[in-house]
Amino acid sequence: MASSAVRTEPAPLPPDTAPARPDVFVSYSRRDKAYVAGTLLPSLTGQNKDVWIDLEDIPPAADWRDRVLAGVSAANALLFVLSPESLTSQICAEELARAVELNKRLIPVVRRDVDGASVPPALARPNWIWLREQDDGERGMAAVIEALDSDLEWRDAHSRLAVRTAEWLDHDRDRSFLLRGSDLRAAEEWLTRQGDHEELPTAEQTRYVLAGRQATTRRQRVTLAAVAAALAIAVALAVFALVQRGQAIERAQVARSRELAASALSVLPRDPELSVLLAAEGVNEKPTSEAEDALRRSLAESRIAVTMRGHRGPVMGATFDPSERSVITAGHDGTVRTWEAGTGRLTAVLRGHDARLLGVAVSRDGARIVSTGDDGTARVWDRDAERVSAVLRGHEGSVFSPAFSPDGRRIVTASDDRTARLWDARDGRQLAVLPHAGIVFNAEFDRSGRRVVTSSEDGTAIVWDARDGLPKARMAGHDGWVNRATFSPDGTLVATAGADRTARIWDAGNGDQRQVLRHADRVNSVAFAADSQRVVTASDDGIAAVWDVRSGHKLADLRGHLDDVVRAVFSPDGRLVATAGGDDTARLWDAASGEPVAVLRGHTDELGRPQFTRDGRRLLTLSDDGTARIWHVPQAAGGDPRRCRAQGRRAQSGRLPRPGVGRALRGAPGRDRHAPGGRAVRAPRPAGPQRRVPVRRALRARHRRQRRRRAGPRRRQRERAGAHEGHRLAGRRREP
Questions:
Q1: Containing domain of residue 530, as a range?
Q2: pTM higher than 0.90, yes or no?
Q3: Which backbone phi and psi does 361 adopt, to 5 degrees?
Q4: 638 in a domain, yes or no?
Q5: Do 196 and 285 reside in the same domain of the chain?
Q6: CATH code for position 702
Q7: DSSP code for 201
Q8: Rounded CA gap, 489 and 452, in Å?
Q9: Which among 302, 321, 336 is the end of a domain?
Q10: DSSP label at residue 690
């Protein structure tokens, strides 16, 4: 009795369940059962083939026959075991007819010769694979596996579509069984590739795919119509909402503009710069009469006199010329620029360096400028001709801290090649080399021009004879880098600032140590007052301090910066101290009491060395934000000391009249809240007197964390190695 092929799972599937897609359906005669079960089936399953095969007699149930024919439909190929009995089997004939109807791939395998038997044309066309007893079985099975693996993707798609088509037909062409989405697109693409394959799609499969496309098109038309109607309704509602929103926004802008104007007027007495920023933000929000009036009043009281913009990158040096009518700056963009001090107008751009600039100085007669940079040179410029008059070559590294001698005939420079050098300012001739065992951070002349003092990474400061370059006094005592060294105005003392948390006072003649002035962190700078009796120090502990030179006693702590204090200098009359900090502010202090006089806000990055004019009425600052600024020094600082201290206490408290203003100014993310001064508006939170110190400490800690995240590797490198003016230059020089 002939036997048909079904899948080898032990439990039959329900009649209405579509079969899975096996790799091959085996149709054979009952007489060939032993060969099929013992040889053919293990060989196929050993090659990971999913085989439909029935090793038992088929029950005569009609539903089981339908199930077998469904298995033929689901399989990718039909393997027909040719023998005289299989060619005469009615069941095998039905299985073959079903496979031919669905254009399945046929693989005829000859088990026994069929000479004289009638072979159906569908089996006569393909090449036969010989697996008789006398044939090479391994070679034959390899041919079977190759036939099953060839064009597998196409046959798998063919079988999958055949199953879906059969389901559609069995359910009276129900639309819910149609293809859609990615299945429909895949079927359409499959149809376009039918030309090169043996198993062509049937007419029913083609109609099934076309019906799916027609149904999809109808759905799209209905959807588009619904969307168009909804869009029309939405547009009408949006127009109405837009009108309402515009009115609400305008009302909110007016209210916010008036709130900012009121805040600007409230902080005007203690912080004119913040008042300008608040008033400008109010005008930007909505030009109400209140905001415009507040802006006029705050501008009249503002301490910002001039802002000089133009450098593309940090400004590394800035100084007044001797007439104080011009300002000379040098920046990371490789240019030296001159500006009108009264208007901030750019008057000249001097180009010639091949790298970033790190310092600039001007001669006492104002006729010449010297600039230094990363290109290893210093250049002397003729201001009138706006050209280079001499190039000072000899350093083997970056050059910084240039200075003219008082008579303008000589120049001293410092470098990371472990030397300072003396030069002839007229022809650029090298006069002397002043060696150290480490980077030389700064070099400067005394007021007579006969001596030079240098500070170095090697932990020493040395006083040199400026005529022959011979050392006259060596000051060793710091445990770490000496960030800065400077002569007292009377020339008898030298003050040094070190990374070992100390500043020290030395005898300039013999190098003997006089005093040790201690901070809680690295000391970045030290400067003498005009009377040579006091020094002011700036430190990474966030404090500047005024000290008595003779006793070494601390006279005043200048507390208020929220980050490290980079530089501190006395005013010419010694009554004020100006500090520049990493919190983007410069601050003015009463040198006697340590009370704050003014907070100069406007820069948006760390500041460098500030400089007073000779009359002490203006202050020049420079910053990494690419600007230099000139500020009006408050007249109260030169008048009644009681008024000065009262103003300082108000500036120190930093309170606003309404707590909501600070939060409002921080505003929604993404809003542009920058006033013309270039600094984001930030109003300090109110702090009562009883909590002033803890709040200030918390703000300082938070500000440091924010700056470290913003500055990234450059600032972290500075903090690991040591913060000071020389390293500030070296750190920027190494910036990627």
A1: 519-654+672-722
A2: no
A3: -150, 160
A4: yes
A5: no
A6: 2.130.10.10
A7: P
A8: 13
A9: 302
A10: G
